[in-house]
Amino acid sequence: MTAATTAPTWSVVVNDEEQRSVWPSDQEPPAGWHTVGFTGTREDCLDHIAADWTDLRPLGLRRRMGER
Q1: Which of 30, 20, 29, 9 shows the shortest CA–CA distance to 50?
Q2: Per-residue pLDDT band at 17 (split at 50, 70, 90)
Q3: pLDDT per residue over 18-54, tens digit each?
Q4: What CA–CA distances, in Å, run from 20 to 2, 3, 25, 65?
Q5: What is the rounded distance in angstroms from the CA atom of residue 52 to the CA atom of residue 47?
Q6: What are the MbtH-like domain coordinates in residue numbering (predicted)?
């Protein structure tokens, strides 16, 4: 008998420019990135990002354009 394999768990991460990505939840995010509290399958995380991150411009650009 073999142990059942489970899909890896991923986390949604964000940087200071409010850009989002996915990162394996069993690893620390790279420098400059932090988790936002959403974990799941990679597809779940990408779906969450697609629904949540509708303005892809980095924060610095949005500020320069006068939007918050």
Answers
A1: 20
A2: very high
A3: 999 999 999 999 999 999 999 999 999 999 999 999 9
A4: 36, 34, 14, 20
A5: 9
A6: 1-51
